[in-house]
Design goal:
4 copies of one chain form a homotetramer. By secondary structure, chain A is α/β, with parallel strands linked by helices. The first copy, chain A, is built from 11 helices and 14 strands. Chain A folds into 2 domains: 3-147 and 313-327, Rossmann fold (3-Layer(aba) Sandwich); 150-310, Dihydrodipicolinate Reductase, domain 2 (2-Layer Sandwich), CATH 3.30.360. Helix content of chain A is 30%, strand content 20%. In chain A, strand 6 (127-128), helix 6 and strand 7 form a beta-alpha-beta unit.
């Protein structure tokens, strides 16, 4: 049995990554590709690396017959996404990759994104898409909100530790090193090769990055009290990858045990042996997340480092994993591609 | 039905690439991994990006029971390869990725590689592994010699043109731009990141690169007369990819037609529309080869450009494609992974 | 004695490179920085790497008092440049870095650039800025037209060989590998880090690149007959550098001798020992050009490779070298910075 | 007046960087280049980017006549350095770039470096080379110990804050992102381009990096009590640069004021306007250090980020700055080169 999916926003990087993954998925077929700004073009024109695939041409959203579609991936910018999704059939299964349905609280949404939410009722319906922690809800969901790629990485480190009470909730620092594809295919001077390669810097420092909205929502819910972490992302000259270095107060061995236990049956989350640390090069192009734990020389402090691919596990791979669950397909289908190294 | 394979030389890049590809191959199982220098280690220690795979530990070659093996990939350095392969059971199917069995003429081998061949009789038995042109022979072969990665790229451009007589045989220039993984996992100063990134240069210029032995052998055989091309490789700061820019004398439109006709049924060779040119970024991590043709402003001259991934179509992907044929598996199995972009 | 210069178009890469070089020049002072689109900003806002310099803020062109200026560098886009320069005082010394005054023939200009020239009389006045070959004219010039960066590289290889009659004029191929800063600080999708890094491709193939206008003009003048070369540039993932691989028919030893003799007194052109080849990493950030010669295995054919930094010797370094000559300053002043490696 | 210097260990990256800087220094002349393993070679063979310089050939250490030398730079590996330096004339001015004389306490040295110190008495004589804080001692020193590149970066952030008492001494985290040239020209698998580019990771995590010895020594001395910081370096795919992200408890505005006041007369340390953050791309190839301060959303916490070039301000630039002081030359001579961007 084969399911038909549409991808809206197919001309961006997360759209391309969805197509790359679905290309070898045995039970899902891409029936429609929406991209308003590039409608009329073939996939070979927009993404020459996908030219070997037999895919429909890009169309505008209103040219898609959603009655023929079992599930729709929305890979649009935030704000646009909520407007578009509120126009889609109310029975259509949707995996949204944007930020629009990640926050359940309309006020929190407005605080972090600067505009009132245009589809408040759907905000409530949406299930948060961090598969390992919302698996059962996702199976039954109609609308799943993919997590932010930074937010996913940080949560893989911290959720089990907060839940188990093995770290101090008031001393959590997350220092992230992010590859450039996380910024999307946008024409900005600082994303040019000549500007970005050979240099790196911190951005959105001091607690201003929007993914903090997700951290606050999720960590506070787990802890049963407000939890505020410190979070500084850095842009590094690589295309794919997020490396999260987390500084926490707690016993390193217990932290390692807690993480190992939490993820021992998870197909995509690998907790490395105690004292080993991950590298983004070892998860590139794959749906895997590697986590390592080291004790600091200062007693009672530990460093936890996680690595994942922002486009795969941090976005499109996660989206496909959730789509598998929503469609009743085995969860790992199409997602077992090994990382591409070197 | 599942076939059991061994990979000897599993700790190099072509070994890792074979494992990456076979990881999602439905009909081939890796039963043994040989790597003398790293015997005793797990794959996670040698290639952390493959740690999620359930693979046997690395062993020395004499620990492998070849009676249990349907086919053996040899990813060893040249010269070592001929010594090792001549010790293997004479009935074992072998795909050799080294240079040792590419040249049929022992003198040519000695000329290009500097030492007499240690297994001359097997040189004769070996079938040249450029799948699209030796497919039927490969199906029935016991020993297949994988082509050089540069040699494959150049031949995809030039074989059909020489065969069809549409270019001048005495004016063929091949200017190659090669990524660094083609040099293997070898500890050389000029392969360090600090040396190589941000710079590029020509090497083995003037007709001294060993892959010329393959060009001479193959092109002369096709033409029925000696053909000598000019060939200059360049090392560029990227990990995967070969871009071959070929300058030929001939009618560009006819050249394009000839190539399009030659490859129209090939699953992995894509001839782009006339006047479009390929990029290595659009085949990275895949088994595809893209070819483009442009007419020069000087009448009667054309530029043909081909791009492929040296580790995949130029080496391990080609090897797996040939193994599929030798084992009676559908040729494209396990090889339809889309390129990894960005 | 100190000369005052203005830089118009100071917010682009060639503008920044001029400032970098002049920053340690003992006899030139930057008195005005023009950049219409960023007027009112400080240099620290536009180029934070220059923040330590005590420079005037960016202004619009009409805010500059050219009476106080001894020489003006124009680092504007072509077409804009001719319009702006024709408005400047007729006695002002000008070094133009754009393409606008490189071609002496108005028809050739229109053919390559697609619009009629707006300052035809100044086209005739302009001296072509390839210092080593127009030194005496440049000393006395009022308006010097900087060469194209690709055009400079190709000419360093070919001018002495054409002049000496040691190569076949009908079989000249120039295969260029260009770093990305040559494309300027322009917001194009294919210049994004995520698109460009890890891949490379040919562009403007087949004789359509505008720098061919310069090659045609100069080489035909030297030869005293029309000379048309083949020229294909490639974009590689590095920030600075041009590597020109030239395939010529001629005796390699004689070619090497000819080049060595031509450049033996030149401070910035280094001809390597016969059979050694240059790398862009060894000239990065400097005004040097390295040239190497190798004989091909086919008798009577040679490969000549040149490397220079497109922003320095290919553009802003050349401009400063010419300005030194025009102002009566020792030619190498401010230009002896060693390359930045690694 | 011109001073004669020798560089021992001239074939490594810090040796090359010293030569690059001294190449345009008006008062220092390189009289001898020592490099035991490459003795007999010219600089053009070891570092082709320096081929334009008129330099003596590389020799073994015992071929150098130190009577003719005013100052000697030692750019040797640690441990070798102490052995070599203890053999040099006792009156020779020396700037050591290794780790051997950074720690004053022999036990601390043995703890961090694993071997007893072979020249304990010289350990006491040596002056710590962080110019801005030991300027007067350096002027009168015979032996100056260059700081670690990471150690320098961290101290530029933290010394004024500890001295002023504006941060909590028990909650200091330093997360460093280091470019690869810091690892030297060493043949290690993980420094290969194919391994390193496109990926990044933490190393020496948990308080095991040797530069902690310097932090402990210096910060404890300033505070008058033991201070232990947390410090995790990360390797990123770039050639030059260190970005130090420091998480501290204290008032951000006061921290900014403190730093701005501390460095207001320093020629190479630039404190950015409050809330602006530095990037390594803006100091590459230069002796400048940029520092920025941002308040966290959690009251009483701040992020301080510093960027410098590990080869220049972190090593060879610092060494030359100290040599200037020791020789009575104006401190900034030869060091005002602007950063090389893009």
């Amino acid at each position: 049995m084969s399911y038909k999916v549409a991808i809206i926003g197919a001309s961006g990087y997360t759209g391309a990554e969805l197509i790359r993954l679905i290309a070898t998925h045995p039970e899902i077929e891409i029936a429609a590709l929406g991209a308003n700004s590039k409608a009329g073009q073939t996939i070979a024109q927009v993404f020459p690396h996908l030219r070997h695939l037999n895919l429909p041409p890009l169309v505008t959203m209103d040219q898609i017959d959603f009655d023929q579609i079992d599930l729709c991936f929305c890979a649009l910018p935030h704000k646009t996404s909520q407007e578009v999704i509120s126009q889609l059939p109310k029975t259509l299964k949707i995996v949204d990759l944007s930020a629009d349905f990640r926050l359940r609280d309309p006020e929190a949404y407005e605080q972090w994104y600067g505009n009132p939410h245009a589809a408040v009722e759907m905000q409530k319906e949406a299930v948060y898409g961090l598969t390992e922690f919302y698996r059962d809800d996702i199976k039954n969901a109609r609308l799943v909100a993919g997590t932010g790629c930074n937010a996913a990485t940080g949560q893989y480190v911290l959720r089990p530790l907060i839940a188990a009470g093995v770290i101090d909730l008031d001393n959590i620092i997350l220092d992230l090193k992010c590859a450039v594809s996380g910024a999307g295919r946008s024409l900005k001077e600082n994303l040019l090769h000549a500007e970005l390669s050979e240099g790196y810097h911190a951005y959105s420092a001091g607690g201003t990055h929007r993914h903090l909205g997700e951290f606050d929502q999720e960590f506070s819910a787990i802890a049963g009290r407000p939890v505020k972490i410190q979070f500084t992302p850095h842009l590094v000259p690589a295309n794919r990858g997020i490396l999260a270095t987390s500084y926490v107060h707690g016993d390193a061995a217990k932290i390692h045990e807690t993480l190992a236990a939490a993820y021992k049956d998870e197909p995509f989350i690998e907790v490395l042996p105690f004292k080993e640390l991950p590298s983004t090069r070892h998860i590139r192009g794959s749906n895997f997340c590697h986590i390592g734990v080291v004790a600091d020389r200062i007693e009672g402090r530990a460093i936890v480092v996680a690595a994942l691919d922002n486009l795969t596990k941090g976005s499109s791979g996660q989206a496909l994993q959730n789509a598998n669950l929503m469609l009743g397909i085995e969860e790992t289908t199409g997602l077992m591609l090994a990382p591409c190294f070197p």
